[in-house]
Amino acid sequence: MNSSTQIAPRQNTYGVVTLGVLAVAVVATGVPDAETAAWLTERGVPAALSTPAMYVLPVLAILASLLVARALGRGRSPVVRWSLYAGLGAVGGFVMGLCLDLFAAVPNIIAAITGPLAEPTLLDTLLWVLGGLCVVLGLMVGGIALFGQSAVTALQVEEVSDPECLEVRRAERGVFAWSAVGMITLGLACCALAVTRQADETVRLAPAIVGCVMAIVSVVASYVLWRGFDEMQRRHVIDGYASSAIVATLGGFAWAILEGLGHVEPISATGVFLVLIFVQLLVTSYVTSSVMGQMSMIGKPA
Amino acid sequence: MKNRLRVLRAEREWSQADLAERLGASRQTINAIETGRYDPSLPLAFKIARLFELHIEDIFIDEDGISEAAQ
User: Fold this and answer.
1) Residue A229 class from Cβ within 10 Å (0-12 exposed, 13-18 middle, 19+ buried)?
2) Which residues of chain A neighbour B24 with C-beta distances below 8 Å?
3) pLDDT digits (tens, 9 = 90+) for A265-277
4) ipTM
């Protein structure tokens, strides 16, 4: 008898509500994007209307992307559901970035320590986005480490047919804690790298040291996680990184061809780092979700 | 590969976490084996068989072998 044919009671979860609340909290840290505001003003939209709309639209976009992905993915394979959440989530994130400059107070706080920062380049902006993403994901995983099953239920977007999927043993919390440490320190390392690139040359050493320390802590956390993994978890990591290497190598070759034809600029070390991290995050999440039964925070790679 | 792990576990009234602890594996791995998304290594399969005091083929069903034998 195949156990997967057994029908278990479905259990409601609250991921959409929790992520909606998180979206409101993130939106509250932002200020309207100047370019988008000017674009709307040029088209005759009064500021009294456009300003509140630029705060409300991102939250609606995030909620809509979650609900549409959940509806379209119902009954489909984990890979299809993951692709839907990733694709529609990216659209929601794009709307958020289009409307608001998030965490607007952060540059001022950093400027108070390091002095004024230069205008960010595209790579700097991507470093800030990646850093913020890692910190937010790390905090969510850290929430599971602290609060266990109630946090998983609060963060799980889909209703689950296997209630044991939501169970988090005390022993498992250590895995989530180290995973959170790894994600948060990686995010802080990315932010420190961005500060190093944007700060005045005379004050770059301090953020560079902070970045190196964060990167080392992140590597140590990954090593501790690896030591504690069982055979399936190690296979996930190996599959994920092997797939990442193939994607990154093919991408690097395509870039080299375009560079040879004079269509793109040579890519810097920062660019290579960013591409590798983004590819690893996407591919390892994809590989993990294709094996895990439920779309769950538990399925995220270390 | 199909298996009877969930049934055997239920007969003993063990949770996935209980079985994971007895096998020294993660609960996620037990869940993935039960739902057919992961085939365990031979050492883990033998460990499972020893725990339930059964032969491996009493727990794991080699569907390819059965269909080849039928042909």
Assistant:
1) middle
2) 230
3) 999 999 999 999 9
4) 0.86
Q: Are A5 and B37 in contact (CB under 8 A)?
A: no
Residues 6+ apart with CB under 8 A from A233: B26, B28, B29
pTM: 0.79
Distance CA A62, CA A46 (A): 25
d(Cα A152, Cα A143) in Å, to the nearest integer?
Answer: 9
Chain B residues whose C-beta sits inside 8 Å of any chain A C-beta: 2-7, 15-17, 21, 24-29, 31-32, 34-38, 40-41, 44
Task: Determine the distance in angstroms separating the CA of B69 from the nearest CA of chain A, rounded to an integer.
Answer: 19
The torsion angles phi and psi of B41, rounded to 5 degrees, stand at: -70, 165
Contact B16 A167 (CB under 8 A): yes
Question: Exposed/middle/buried for A77, CB within 10 Å: 0-12, 13-18, 19+?
Answer: exposed
Residues of chain B predicted below pLDDT 50: none
Distance, C-alpha A173 to centroid of its chain:
21
- Give the pLDDT score at A9: 54
Lookup: tokens for A87 = 């694709």
For tokens 């009493």, the residue is: B58
DSSP structure string for B2-52: EE-HHHHHHHTT--HHHHHHHHTS-HHHHHHHHTTS-PPPHHHHHHHHHHH
Q: What residue spans of chain A are helical by DSSP H?
A: 15-27, 34-42, 47-73, 78-99, 105-114, 122-147, 149-155, 170-198, 205-228, 231-260, 269-291
Which among B7, B25, B35 has CB closest to A230? Answer: B25
CA nearest neighbour of A230 among B2, B32, B49: B32
Cβ-based contacts of A170 with chain B (< 8 Å): none
Exposure string for A118-130, b = 16+ CB within 10 A, e = fewer: eeeeebbebbbbb
